[in-house]
Amino acid sequence: MRKIKIFSRFERFWHWSQMAVVVLLTLTGFEIHGNFAMFGFEQAVRLHNAAAISFIILGFITIFWLFVTGQYQNFIPTRNKLKEQISFYAKGIFHNAPHPTKKTETNKLNPLQRIIYLGLLILIFPVQTITGLLYLYYHYPENPIDASGLWLAVITHTLGAFLVVAFVVVHVYMTSTGHRITTNVKAMITGFEEEPIKKESTEKQPV
Amino acid sequence: MNKISQKLTTFLVVLVLPALVIFLTVHFGLRRGIPVKKEYQVRASLGKKVDHSEFQILKQEFKRPQDVTAACLSCHNKRDDELMASAHWKWDRETNLPNGRGKVNIGKKNLINNFCMAADGNNGSCMRCHIGYGWQDKSFDFNDPNNIDCLVCHDNTNTYKKRKNSAGMPATTENATSEFPVPDYNFVSQNVGKPKRENCGVCHFHGGGGNNVKHGDLEEAMLNCSRSVDVHMAKDGKDMACNDCHLTENHNITGRAYSVSSENTNRSTCEQCHTSAPHNDKVLDMHYIKVACQTCHIPIYAKVNPTVMYWDWSVAGKRDANGNPITEYDNQHKYSYISIKGHFVWNDHVKPDYAWFNGTADHYLYDDTITTIPLKINTLMGNYEDLESKIWPIKIHRGKQPFDTISKKLVNVKVFGNSKGEGAFWEDLRMDTAIYLGMKYAEREYSGKFDFVQTEAYWPINHQVAPKEQTLKCIDCHTRSEEGRLAKLPGFYLPGRNYAKAVDYSGFAIIIISVLGVIIHSVMRIFARKNNL
User: Does the distance separating the beta carbons of A34 and B14 come in below 8 Å?
Assistant: First the structure.
């Protein structure tokens, strides 16, 4: 076995903080939506609004970090080995086939992850943030543009929330698809991934 | 050493810092603004500047109440002009009706309601609450300043009372009783001052023929109530009088009753003291844009004595086997049926209805025909999109009252008469004659054929403000429950109440598919692993 450094300190802080904030946002959000009672409506609203602020601050710090360190390149989608990656989850995984891609510190996301996470980063998160802010500060017809109660923003925000939950379900499950069930979670915690030593080339990995 | 520092770093970035993020989020998130505490000195505590008992003119022997008015006006000149221009005197007011219905002169004098239908023609009883002396009929002189009754509003002794059924005249030596003696005009006039709540209450508590019948949020109990009934008027609280909120200058009293008013002007508002951001809390203060203060701060009305919710005239007039009028009581010991008035439904601790309201109201006028049933006696204007509109608590008084089946118009009814045989309903219990006389007095045409129609009157609730612990909670409106306060208020998306079924159903479908996918995939992996071993 060998240890490969995958996740930096900031990435691990980012990931787990974001996880906590998103869990808080989801719980309070669905309470506000009327699905269950947990915190009480007023506290749910206050926590949801505060968590949104934390989420936005964390988002800005992360964007800054991604570009300063060049780590944003991890999220650039590629078709290289995309089919192999899909085929691995659909077939190979049941036959103990090796992972078609390998993780390194500069190449920590597989082609499928790149697409999904980029989707989150540029679709879901900004949409949730913008519709949320609109709904928080711009939802009355007194505003210059009457968005008729921002019906559309609300619908979008709710749909986004459902997609986030679906993402979390699959995302958590996918952590178990590493070399061992706990490999990926461990990497996210310690920053290091343990891999069996195999003579594999990393040259043809997506950039 | 390296390993320890690595573990410490991990501990820090994976646990401590994210926990700190959540701690700060929760800590700042749950902070609630501290409401602005309003200090207020009630007007009654300002003290009197003038001792009226020293005036010689008030020591004369007053023969008629009009002589008292003359004495008042001899010093307070021009005050009669202010009063005679007021709605308290004229019982009408030039006003612009909404919906482009134009300028009209309307007021208690010429509007129809769904209590006793109309004051006009029932002067003996109704005009007891006119601020004048003896508006018995059309011959009353509205231009004689001595007909103004100064004392009914300015008596500070609580001894000045007007007789019942005398069109606003106090008792004379001929008709004095123990309940209504001849007022001691010297004592009363030497002890005048700013109106106290008793002065306003004598009429505004008893509209509709009894305590709290009409308003629901204005009643005798507020003369001496606890904070939970009314925080402003409570004896153990601020002990405010009516004119502490209904600010008055030159006899122009602010505040509107939309049973008779139409315009969004000259109102008495909470903001006079409390500003438009009183909670000092962003989320709560934003509600101000669309929610009237009253909506959350008056969760129930009629907190002490019941108010009339339904009044059915169609069953009035029954007699028992001996030909005598009947009275029946409900389990609250309130009359549920009296022959002279019909059937009543009372209620106390009533949850208001809620409506969009922008401060303007339309009214049923004599010339209007009935187009929709139930007929709206008055219509509060407003909707979500309207910038002036807010959600307002309302008392809806429902009734069933006579209308002309040929002309399709509500009718005036002569209910009050001085004696039997005149044709007044309360004396003779004959609706046809009473309508005929009512319409004749109002100078309106009547076909002679009548039936009864359902009507609704809308009374915005403004009084009986609750202590802050008893206000509505978020969940009272932001809920999917049918019991939610705003369950029936249309026209806008309310978080917690509204949701798009298509979005929610497809959202849950996506989540269920994800979970199923995960389960199937993991089961397949488990079987695959067994096979591969």
Answer: no
Q: Are strands A2-5 and B409-410 parallel, antiparallel or unpaired?
A: unpaired
Q: Show which of residues 105-134 on chain A sit within 8 Å of chain B, judged by CB atoms.
A: none
Pair of tokens at residue B395: 């008392």
> For position A206, what pLDDT does the model report?
56
Secondary structure (H, E, C), chain A: CEEEECCCHHHHHHHHHHHHHHHHHHHHHHHHCCCCCCCCHHHHHHHHHHHHHHHHHHHHHHHHHHHHHCHHHHHCCCCCCHHHHHHHHHCHHHHCCCCCCCCECCECCCHHHHHHHHHHHHHHHHHHHHHHHHHHHCCCCCCCCCCHHHHHHHHHHHHHHHHHHHHHHHHHHHHHHCCCCCHHHHHHHHCEEEECCCCCCCCCCCC
Residue-range domain boundaries for chain B? 500-528
A141/B24 CB distance under 8 A = no
d(CA B40, CA B35): 15
Q: In terms of Cα–Cα distance, which of A53, A137, A131, A22 is closest to B29?
A: A53
Which tokens go with B14? Answer: 């994976």
Q: What is the pLDDT of residues A157-189, one digit of tens each?
A: 999 999 999 999 999 999 998 888 888 899 999
Buried b / exposed e along A6-20 (16+ C-beta atoms within 10 A): bbbebbbbbbbbbeb
Interchain proximity B283–A94, CB inside 8 Å: no
CB–CB of B495 and A33 under 8 A? yes
Q: Which residues numbered 358-417 in B keep a CB inside 8 Å of some CB on A?
A: 384-387
Question: Chain A: nearest CA to B495, how far in angstroms?
Answer: 6
Residue B313: closest CA among B381, B247, B236, B397: B397
Pick the CATH number of A2-195 from 1.20.950.20, 2.40.160.20, 3.40.640.10, 1.25.10.10: 1.20.950.20
Q: How confident is the model at residue A146 (pLDDT cuts 50, 70, 90)?
A: low
Nearest to B532 among A42, A96, A140 (CB): A96
On chain A, the residues whose CB falls within 8 A of the CB of B15 are 16
Q: Is B32 on the interface with A (CB under 8 A)?
A: yes
What value of ipTM does the predicted structure carry?
0.90
Work out the average pLDDT over A143-151.
64
Residue with token string 């949701």: B499
Residues A158, B511: C-beta atoms closer than 8 Å: no
The kind and range of the H/E element at B435 are helix B431-441
- Tokens for B166? 């005398």
d(CA B283, CA A139): 12
Angle, in degrees to the nearest 10, between helices A125-137 and A151-174:
140
Residue B532: pLDDT above 80?
Answer: no
Per-residue pLDDT at A124: 85
Report yes or no: B288 at the A interface, CB cutoff 8 Å. Answer: no
Give the pLDDT of residue A141: 67
Least Cα distance to B313 among B455, B126, B437, B420 occurs for B455
- The three state secondary structure string of B186-250 is HHHHCCECCCCHHHHHHHHCCCCCCCCCCCCCCCHHHHCCCCCCCCCCCCCCCCCCHHHHCCEEC
What does residue B82 show for φ and ψ, rounded to 5 degrees?
-60, -45
Amino acid residing at A126: P
Of B469, B449, B458, B441, give the one whose Cα is nearest residue B138. Answer: B441
Q: Is the pLDDT of residue B456 over 70?
A: yes
